[in-house]
Amino acid sequence: MHLVIGRRKTTPVATHESARALAWSSRSSLIGLIVMAAVILACYAGALAHLAGRWSVEANYSHGFLVPFISAWLLWQRRDLLVAVKTPIRGRWLGLALVLVSLVFRLFADYFGYVLAEPLAFIVCIAGATTLVGGYTALFWAWPAIVFLIFMIPLPGAVGGRLGGPLQHLATSGSTYVLQTLGIPAVASGNVICLTHGKIGVAEACNGLGMLTTFAAVTTAAVFLLPLSVWEKICVLASSAGIALAANIFRIAATGVVQEWIGVEFAERVFHDFAGLLMVPLALLMLGVEVLLLTRLFPRMTAGPLVVVRQSAGGVAAKSTLLQTRS
């Protein structure tokens, strides 16, 4: 009696059946995610309506209307991660644990009246539903978009109040320094910049908090999308606050320059709002320059042949090819 051990041959029929099973698994997981998303949106409709109301009233958080669309774009940009899956997608019980955690957050928000905890519960619930239906594969695909949803939540009032005063003072001092550097007589008195032709009051709305939160969201989206190394992404994220504050200081200083050179009325009625529109493009320009400098000053080496020339004893040069493995 002979025992033959070998690999079982995969027939075209079996391959076709496995492909059909994989396609059906992916399709059913996608349908499940859509159904779960509809249920979650219905459950958190009140919290989302509250957020939309704050976005429409508070200028510092008006970027919240764009956050869901950017999250959807992040999902679309990472769609290849789902297409490349070769095994059936299965849910994980970790998703149920996350859903329960979101329920605890929501009960906390209802009991203590802390309204901003409910949107946080909404984000945790989305992560849990994604893991429960699509497993770790779906969570790995969707985690940047889920994390980005945090930027739709306004800062707590206590945090915004504590940041407003120092940011207002920083904007006043920085703008005064820029004007003095340009040769324009300027003196800061509290949150007012005294010029030769009038004054510029740095109001609370001009403290740069709105620019800070908006540009933090923009920088995070860029980090998720740009092909940068880990330390380059850390540098870009760390510089977002400085770039946002510098853009706000530029706006105030430019208004002062126009007021001194052209006139007070033109600076207040025309240029002030126009300079506000230029802040985000200016900040994006500075971010692009930073990324360009990082990629040019510290280029990444790609794998390829490296030719080394050696001098032999007889004076004849010998070439040897090595494989460069650093990336």
User: How many structural domains does the protein architecture include?
Assistant: 2
What would the average pLDDT be, to the nearest integer? 81
The arrangement of helices and strands along the chain is HHHHHHHEEEHHHEE
Distance between the termini: 55 Å
Low-pLDDT stretches: 1-16, 315-327
Q: Top keywords for this entry?
A:
disordered C terminus; 327 residues; mainly alpha; three-stranded antiparallel β-sheet
Structure overview:
By secondary structure, the protein is mainly alpha-helical. It has 2 domains: 15-154, no CATH class; 158-297, no CATH class. It is built from 10 helices and 5 strands; from the N terminus they run αααααααβββαααββ. It has helices at 12-43, 45-57, 67-77, 80-83, 94-112, 117-148, 157-181, 209-225, 230-261, 264-297, and strands at residues 187-189, 192-195, 198-201, 304-311, 317-324. Strands 1-2-3 form a 3-stranded antiparallel sheet, with helices on one face. Strands 4-5 form a two-stranded antiparallel ribbon. Helix 3 runs parallel beside helix 6 (117-148), helix 7 packs across helix 9 (230-261) and helix 8 packs antiparallel against helix 9. The radius of gyration is 28 Å and the shape is globular. It starts with 11 loop residues before the first helix and ends with a strand. Residues 1-16 and 315-327 have low confidence and may be disordered.
Short summary of the structure?
The protein has helices spanning 12-43, 45-57, 67-77, 80-83, 94-112, 117-148, 157-181, 209-225, 230-261, 264-297; strands at residues 187-189, 192-195, 198-201, 304-311, 317-324. It has 327 residues and is mainly α.
